[in-house]
Specification:
By secondary structure, this protein is of the alpha+beta class. The chain has five domains: 61 residues, Arc Repressor Mutant, subunit A (Orthogonal Bundle), CATH 1.10.10; 67 residues, Beta Barrel (OB fold (Dihydrolipoamide Acetyltransferase, E2P)), CATH 2.40.50; 67 residues, Beta Barrel (OB fold (Dihydrolipoamide Acetyltransferase, E2P)); 305 residues, no CATH class; 105 residues, Nucleic acid-binding proteins (OB fold (Dihydrolipoamide Acetyltransferase, E2P), Beta Barrel). Helix content is 29%, strand content 26%. The chain contains 17 helices and 34 strands. Strands 3-4-5-7-6 form a five-stranded mixed beta barrel. The chain has a five-stranded antiparallel sheet with strand order 10-9-8-11-12, with helices on one face. Strand 32 and strand 33 form a beta hairpin. Helix 9 packs across helix 10, helix 10 crosses helix 11 and helix 13 packs antiparallel against helix 14. The N terminus and C terminus are likely disordered.
Amino acid sequence: MPSRKNKKTDPITKHSPLARILLDTMKQAGRPLFLHEMVKLAALDSKARKKVMEEALKLCQSGEFVELKGGRFGLTEMMHLIKGRLSMHRDGYGFVTPEGQQGAEDIFIARNNLKGAVHGDIVMVRVEPSKTRTRRIEGSVLRLIERSLKKVIGTFHKGKSVSVVKPEDERLLFEIIIPKKNAIKAQTGQIVLAEITDFDLSSSAPEGRIIEILGDENDLSVQARIVAYRHELPQQFSDATLKETELLPDEVIISEKDISEQGRKDLRDVPLITIDGETAKDFDDAVWAKKTRTGYELLVAIADVSHYVQIDSPIDKDAMDRGTSVYFSNSVVPMLPEALSNNLCSLVPDKDRLAVVAEIHFDRQGHRKKAKFYPAVIKNHRRCTYSEIAKLIEQLKSKAKTGHTSLSQTFLKPLNDMTELAMLLTQVRQERGSIDFDLPEPFVVIGITGELEDIVKRQRNFAHQLIEEFMLAANEAVADFFVSRSIPALFRIHEQPDPQKLDDFREFAESIGLHLEKTDGIDPAWCQKAIKKAANEPFEYLVNTVLLRSMRQAVYTPDNKGHFGLASQNYLHFTSPIRRYPDLVTHRILKANMKKRKAVEAYPYETLARLGTDCSRRERVAIEAEREMLERLKARFMAEKVGEIFDGIISGVASFGFFVELKDIFVEGAVRMVDLADDYYECDLQRHRLIGQRTRKIYQLGMPVTVRLKSVNITRRHLNFEIVEKSTASSDDAIPHKETAHEKRTGTVHKTKKH
């Protein structure tokens, strides 16, 4: 979708002709100018002075001009001024991230240099000499360009004539004054959404009004909404989207004529099944496989979302803005309206559904021979769960009699073939060096009435692996199809790690006794060998964690640079268009090309680049929101367990102490150095450990410990633990290791018992 040109602006600079003249005049002058000087030097008619003033103020708003005392205007780039967004710390200082300067260092702003700016504001800052011995860049706010804060979520406190809202975000260092007439029916202690109505620089606190009462802060649904507001997740679909959704059919009714006209293949008799978690509500992928004379045939059928969501339609615009669905333990912020995600595009059992199918053929060793793609009409013959399929697979693997099962022979034969194929695909992927990190994930148990019951480690089995292998195979097959025909697409890339970080990992591995082969360059196969070598060792968790932290973050981009973690040259996302916008883009590109001999450019490169940046950003926001919601649940769950003793493992080391992940409850908290009363400890971040100066005790990443929950700060979502000494510990594993003379020389640590 090419960008539209504005006739009133220069298509290259995006400035009006007059603004371009003013910018050139200022640069040629080489000094700040008064308004009348600009008019004179630019050889403009004196009658144009009003328009010049308007344009100069616009340039101030965009950050290219700055208005100085006395009425002069200066060029920000010539005055060491930087425009950016202010991010506050709860202790009162902040940092400004320069706008349009990728990789530029943030500028530190001391509390007394904020000039009334608050968290989220767009500001102009002057870089100044550092007043401390640190090497950080420091500055002061020169001018507020834009107040970004419009709405605030917080706790309501009722007064006689005036009430206040205390912001839930600790980075907002003020309270909002709520006049009595604007408080509606809010009560003290309730979580509310307040709109700021007056917030100028002269006021000590903004004034606002209550626009929504969310409710009790202990309600998990209220907590989810708090997180959604904090991360600016859309709470509602647009009116245009809701109107468009109302026009969608309630059921998929497709005739033989429709199938023929749409060029769809009728696969309704193929016994496709879905395999998902017990609580899943949307099903966007169905699978089926069979063993052939020469190998295996795999069908991966994905809901045809693009049939219902047209480019630039209201639903599409909302989906693009959201970028991804965001999943909380008790709710979801969906990318698509429920009429699509839970109905028309959900592959529910025994219903006709439109799909895009990847038909992939493999040889007997699991190598892909060919693949083709086509639109189809399918039927999900059975909705299966991971646990159910895992039990059946175990029976099939052991060749035991299946006895009475919930699956008929119609499904058991394909399931056996799928199991064989998935094992071969895993082997092929691992042989090429694909990295499989073995790190646990949390699972929040919610009771029938919505209360938080437990937080445990998510159970994984071979059924999860089976589905993952098939989805990876489909994603890679589509990517290869695009690359082979030079079709512009939105790839999922994972660049090579920073060489220095891998060097640090090698040194760290040696320090804990994991001797790795030397390698020239950066190779994913080497990383996979490191993980395999650490398997079943006491430091397995440690190696997985440190190596993962050495990796870069995967992103979306039209520039195909391969996927390091998967050891794949071509990779993208195709299998979840219900919940990821890049997958929807992939479907549109695929459908535009699957029946064409000549490559069709469904999206221009510039559009794909913008979508890649936006979708990568929305993905990071979703991850942060999901992580915050989990931390909120953990803090509330543990608040009633203060004083209890737990077994755990050191999951991180920091300058202030170390983090402990509990064994039976999947939560993490900190043991601070100030709570290690037996010695003064030094932090060795390179080897991820603390060492006692007198006792030479070592607390190291991956070491099992026993701790007591000392306190819980629900507001900050912090858990503070303290080490349980030998006299009260239930296991010797809780006793920290003491450094030996050999370890002092070599920097190695003896193996501890496996957690």
